[in-house]
Amino acid sequence: MSSRPAPTASTTTADDASDRLGLVMRGVSLRHGNAAETVQALDNVDLTVRPGELAAVVGPSGAGKSSLLAVAGGLARPDQGTVTVAGQDMTVPSRRTRTELRRQHVGFVFQSGNLLPALTAADQVRLPLRLGSRSQRSGRDPLELLADVGMADKSDRRPHQLSGGERQRVGIARALVTEPSVLLVDEPTAALDRARSHEIVRLLAHEARQRSVAVVMVTHDHDVLQYCDTVYEMVDGKLATSS
Amino acid sequence: MFLAIRELNFARLRFALMGAVIALIAVLMVMLSGLSVGLVRDGVSGLQNLPVTSFAFAQDVQRDSAFSRSVVDMTAVDEWADQPGVADATPFGNTLVNTRTDRGTEVDLALFGVQPDSFLSPPVSQGDRLGTEDGIVVSPTALDAGLQMGDVVTIDRLGTRLRVVGVTEQQDTFGHVDVAYVPLAAWQAIKSGTAPGTALPQRAATEITAVAVRAADGKSVDLAAGDTAAGTESLTLKESYGASPGYTAETTTLQLIQGFLYAISALVAGAFFAVWAIQRKPEVAVLRALGASTGWVLRDALTQAFVLLAAAVAIGVGVGLALGALITGSGIPFALSMPSISAAGVGLVVLGLVGAGAAVIRITSVDPATALGGNR
Ligand SMILES: Nc1ncnc2c1ncn2[C@@H]1O[C@H](COP(=O)(O)OP(=O)(O)OP(=O)(O)O)[C@@H](O)[C@H]1O
Ligand SMILES: [Mg+2]
């Protein structure tokens, strides 16, 4: 189905070609705040996530984990460094261009789903396909995708009629429908119990491998790290490989 | 459209409440429009139906009461008839009188004194045109007021008797009073207070209210030059409406109320969508993070506002028209005019959109990074 190469997580030597298809961040720094008070949210961050790889980022609150995802997805521009997604520069000044790149190459999964209250599960998944112009409306079949995440029988329910775990599944389906190169996931299990958390992360790992998507998952939940290929730790804006 | 329609459906009750307010404003707008068209018709339809392009009144006459105050000498008529571009000029006299029929019915009439062989002599829908010395042609609305063909009316105090010989083709009213066309000579006698049987004073026979001027087809008349030559002060037919009793006060009051309604509509829509936009901020952040451009979000929000406003105004206008149909013909000056109602409806939608637009524009400043958990 996908034209992308097979997962490369098992490759030991760096494969430049497949690197570029995932997420590459080099020397990325980001400061928040004004002249009087600044916070170094990201401090010279290097990160490579290949297609099919599930990378976890852990760290204390305020360490800069969400900032990392914001920069990776072009929601914020770093003060320094380069970010590419599927070979595309995500740090261009034009907000419009970054939005366009995000729509085509990036999927976001948020804490507690962040679904739109007015939409049914099926419409939540259809929505990203409607954000571009008519000619760009290619992607996966929303209903098939809902079935893949185990939500086939609840496709016409609205968010308030779904449990936290179900919302998160819909959120994942919504992020995958445009066939993104990179999936950015912020604390997907924060609102879930242990069993649900495992299910969700297993689903993410499965989709990442199945579809060759580079996944970055921020989590506080050390329980689910077993499903991840790489684990990074973030402290005071600095990113390091976790032992 | 995708999201806009689904949100309208999802938050039905909230949008319905807002729509109801706009619909009520639209009902009010139709009523006001009907009232103002009705009042204008009641106030100046007698003038509107005249085949006249301008009136030459006395010099320095007070403009808002020119018809009752102006006195012009007959010689001005010939002077005006000779002006370039003028097809015809004829004397015009105007007075309000209280009359009583032999049956005892009291009828107020706005007398239009015209020469029976002039272009001002009105066509009739029944009876005869002006001709006999004491024959008058009245507006059909005078029949509703209790007058009948062949009635003889007596003017209060003066005792002059006039006979209804004909009825004009359409409503002719002036200052909310039914118009009666009367031969100029009879008008001059009435205006000068000359009792029946008494000779008309020399001076009264030369005095008229204004010169009615009709420009030749496609020609324009230099009013200033004519005024200088004839020693008069001209008002175009439209300008002369303002000289009819109460006209300016009534129309400005209604226009003021309509203006306020437009402003209220814009403010109501603005306030509603401002609250809506603030509530939607987290959602908009998510949409932006998913790759929606600000243009997409704005288009969606404005589509939503437009659908809501258009539906509400359509319902309101519908209800207004139904109510208006009940009122029409009940004696209240009320007339439904589709062009003016459509204009008011479009105006409401447009101003509502302006208000909504000013409110939803703030969603463009939403930082999509706030969609991420940590920053909320
Ligand atoms: N818009 C902003 N303006 C100013 N400071 C900000 C802004 N966003 C984040 N910060 C600061 O940047 C630092 C990193 O924030 P970030 O949200 O990335 O942390 P996090 O690791 O995601 O924390 P958490 O685990 O609580 O979600 C924090 O000190 C935070 O206060
Ligand atoms: Mg965070």
UniProtKB/TrEMBL annotation, chain A:
Coiled coil: none
Keywords (A to Z) from UniProt: ATP-binding, Nucleotide-binding, Transport
SUPFAM superfamilies in UniProt: P-loop containing nucleoside triphosphate hydrolases
Record's keyword annotation contains Transport: yes
GO molecular function: ATP binding
ABC transporter domain ranges (all copies): 25-243
InterPro entries the record matches: AAA+_ATPase, ABC_transporter-like_ATP-bd, ABC_transporter-like_CS, ABC_transpr_LolD-like, MacB-like_ATP-bd, P-loop_NTPase
SMART domains: AAA
PANTHER family the record matches: ABC TRANSPORTER RELATED, IMPORT ATP-BINDING PROTEIN
Full protein name: ABC transporter ATP-binding protein
Organism: Micromonospora parva
